[in-house]
């Protein structure tokens, strides 16, 4: 079976979706599966742009063979040498032994690490600013290191003005027939999954993502073709996702409001976290979001920590450390270098509350973090004194949000 889709003259999508996978990279929950995009242009020479994951190998091969319709594949451009896009290269070589891989020096090193029998004669090395022609189409290459791996590059089809951007501008989730963002029924959900994808997969490398974005800032783009998720083709959608990426890459919050994340063992910390949320809501703060760190996967929380200007971490003390699920989240948050947030802390402890101090020592490593006082201490359960401190904290958070 094949299911290729024509995107333009001699230009095809030859990807597919994996509806069965539960964890992307064996880490991230994907309740709506995962799409792997690959693109084929049949010019005087034929050129494939990126491959796919092994889970859709048969479908991909059927798509490629159907589009080629008896022609051979001349080139495969590799924008990203991670296995979710490269698992089919040996399959291609078996069918098209004269095919050459096009990639930068790092790409070719990785290609030969993953596939030890590939030789230099089967590769063409390109660098920043190089172009490559297949006849009517000319492709320009822009290096985008660390947007996700060091070898990543973007390829720009100067003829169709199409940008092939590897993982960038991608998202979690299968494609359900509709390939284009403007065709999706639930665009907000898709943006949330695009944000969760970027922040978790690439979000640590904001400055590198920013450098890559700048290269495309003044180039006319009719279509953005990522290796995951929907294709962007309407100018307003392309502008919107570019603006989102500029915020994400620079750790600029999208929402001036409060995200409260709590780790609660028996529910006492949770009660106080909700009390704070109610106080903030009564003062007029909208769009408050709350997460129980034991219930939501940290990838969803991290995504919203990129999104919100103000964050409250409320955490029980556990075996003289912070509650483990909170520690996992904070390690990830700090590792991603999310700067410029305004943060308040709450701790619980029945005999030796430690979580506040431990959380602060991690969070202090982040650039331009501002802590909002007071630190709330809950001794087992809330009391009058605790709620008075919550009143003071909610007022201080409110003042900060207002500013
Ligand atoms: Fe979709 Fe970084 O691979």
What does this protein structure show overall?
The chain has helices at residues 57-68, 83-86, 89-95, 105-114, 187-202, 206-215, 235-249, 268-282, 298-307, 324-335, 355-363, 384-402, and strands spanning 5-8, 11-13, 16-18, 23-24, 28-29, 34-36, 39-42, 46-49, 75-77, 100-103, 123-125, 131-133, 138-143, 153-157, 162-164, 223-225, 255-263, 289-292, 308-318, 321-322, 342-348, 370-378. By secondary structure, the chain is an alpha/beta fold. The strands form five sheets. Strands 1-2-7-8-9-10-11 form a seven-stranded mixed sheet. Strand 1 and strand 2 (11-13) form a beta hairpin. The termini are far apart. It binds MU-OXO-diiron. MU-OXO-diiron binds next to helix 2.
**Binned strand content:** 15-25%
Structural class, from secondary structure content? alpha/beta
Count of helix runs: 12
Uncertain segments: none
**What is the overall pLDDT average?**
97
Helix content: 25-40%
- Taking the alpha carbons of the first and last residues, their distance comes to 58 Å
According to DSSP, the number of beta strands is: 22
Radius of gyration, taken over Cα atoms and rounded to an integer in Å:
24 Å
Shape: elongated
Ligands present: MU-OXO-diiron
Q: How would you characterize the largest beta sheet?
A: 7 strands, mixed
State the strand order across the main sheet.
1-2-7-8-9-10-11
